[in-house]
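Trying the structure run again after the queue cleared.
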Amino acid sequence: MSEANILNPTAASEVNPDYAWSAGLPQMHSKFQAKSGQVIGRQLLSRGRVYDVAWNSRPKTIADQLRQWEAQYRNDFFTFQDLERGRYFSGQFVAPLLESPAANNKWNLRGQFIEIPGLAMFSYPTAWATDAIFMEERDGFGKDLVKLVGTWVYRADPLGQHGVACYVSSTINDTAEWLYFGYGFRFWAPTAPDRGKVDVALDRTLVATVDQYTAGSVGSAVLLTDANVSLGLHRVKCTVKAKNVASSANNVLIDAIEVMQ
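Done. Tokens:
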């Protein structure tokens, strides 16, 4: 399992790159704005993070280890640990490391690590409070962020939704879909005595059937978490299903999904 092969497994590892490195996502969005219109954007690419890393004045043993590592995984992948963020990334060096001799039989090396979407991970990210974002039902321009099929109604709800409102349907097999780029997701919705069930699928595979029925009304909360998901362009599809027999109605509320970045 390549994801278990960690370049820098501990904070004390001699192959940790020097600080400070540069890291970030490449530009994946194209944006356009008419002279008197709103900004329109579309994601065109699906790429992972890029790290520009360097090792300065390393002894020959460490320089040799890094050269061998790059060659070993030139056609494979490995795990890079970002100790500052407490996260792991699966990928490879984009090219052989550049090296130059330094004084006293030491070497300077530099290269670029790229995260590759779709790979298994040593540890999937779960820092929802700092690394996740909410995908609401509509953006600030009033445009739907969800693909809706059926008789959904957009309405305000007294249970404190993200973005103040939500979509509601009581028709079996109505669907709502989000498309996002990231890792795992969490499904948020309120529950109440008049709620039904909803199938939640990721990339056409059922994750779980969520029952939104509760004896009393409860504000929007996490009803489902799917964290072990590799980086990629994903589709979450929610399908209205038959209600719990204890429920007084078949209403399904779609509040938001929270996606790991």
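The mean pLDDT is 90. Worth checking whether this holds up in the mutant runs.
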